[in-house]
Give the backbone structure.
Amino acid sequence: MNRIDQRFQDLKAAGKTAFIPYITAGDPTLAQTEEIVYALEAAGADIIEFGVPFSDPIGDGPVNQEAALRALKHNVSLRDVLALIKKIREKSQVAILIFTYYNPVLAFGLKAFAQAAEDAGADGVLCVDLPPEEADEYKAALDAHGLRTVFLMSPTSTDERIKIIAKQSSGFIYYVSRLGVTGEQSALAADLDQAVANIQKHTDTPVAVGFGISTPEQAKKVAGMAQGVVVGSAIVRMIGQLGESPETAVKVGAFVKSLADATKG
């Protein structure tokens, strides 16, 4: 079974919620990204979103944009990210979701990318800027290689569009808890529970909530509404502040443990 499906199945049986951290591959370096992945897994991460650095990350806020630029200074490419996943697979079976924009996938070649992602040991792909209405060829290619296709859903998604996104999504649906780009927020949207409940009327696919969650208190609150909690910018900010310190992975792991523990109660 695909690792993402297996993880949600196991967590559902245990009555728990998935904790899903996001990091940018190659920030601060590819070698330290590998160490951070192992630290995240040890801290309780169920699925790791593995960001592919991209020069025009329009869906990301300043924190993630700066992380992408730091990685790009080391010339980290999609091929480097896939090679790192393959290396991680020698030691870890944590579920990995590639988080990317569509241009690097197109440049790689859709079918070649799907084959390479499977060969590397990835479990799914979230292609941020690919509309689900235009994703049939993409989904067919990834489905053929056992890769899950995660799509974004937002507060402005109508019931009709929720059905389209739910049809194209597998593994889980990523619900963007507020409008705008990624980034930490002091408060969650007041109607978040109602929005998640409305999505769940249309699909049995697990729903994970992200964008704006940055504290254990917020993670615990969202865990009571959805099947997954995603935290990105707060972790990426910490990696940026620590840089290439030998303590980066340990300190990031400690922070993530506080979030994962809160998510799982």
